[in-house]
Amino acid sequence: MSGHSKWATTKHQKGAKDKARAKLFAKLIRQVEVAAREGGGDMSANANLRTMYQKARDSSVPLDTIERAIKRGTGELEGVRYEAMSYEGYAASGVAVIVECLTDNRNRTGAEIRTIFSRNGGSMAEPGAVAWQFARKGVITVSREILEDDLMAIVLETGAEDLRDDRDSWALIAEPSDLQGVREALEAAGIVPKSLEIQMIAATEHLVEDESTARKVLHLLKLLDDQDDVQNVWSNFDIPDAILEAVSA
To answer: The whole model's pTM is what?
Structure first.
């Protein structure tokens, strides 16, 4: 199972225990608002807004809350103006990390992200030093109970790039612009996706076989993810399942 999907699984398990729904909603609403500001409020013409809208709905964000976020993004309603920022760095053992933020104060956010890295065994990197190792892809996860052959037929039909086994689920990989078409094909086949999102997927992974190092890597990623302005944290680590289970216990 790939490193970024392991982090997503670990994050979601901990999130069910200790993340408030309000904080998740705030992040999703910011994503919707910025998508509307950058590409307009028409979802038929704004693929990123469609994706963020569906992600918010899948997480049970109220429809009127989403609609207000879209209107703030298009300027129909007043609101705080958020700016998209991306930071790059390394965790312990040279594990690559990308941190995506939406902030109304780039100086404050940049200082806080830098502090989290420096105080937890990591270091910041220059723009582009890490990003070249990743590609932005659309990812749809579905139940592991679905037959592989049925999903592969949809991959071939829709032009999706890959079908990945993530142990607890299947993940269909596609270009972000093709994500909605893949989702529609799944639903037409009676398959309800578990989640739909845009991810930064690493071309190669960094193997972490030492438990102490794994703890440091996951601790840093969790602190970054908990920072209020952070929307996504991507990494290229690959921690064997046995070590991941031990450090996540």
So the answer is: 0.81
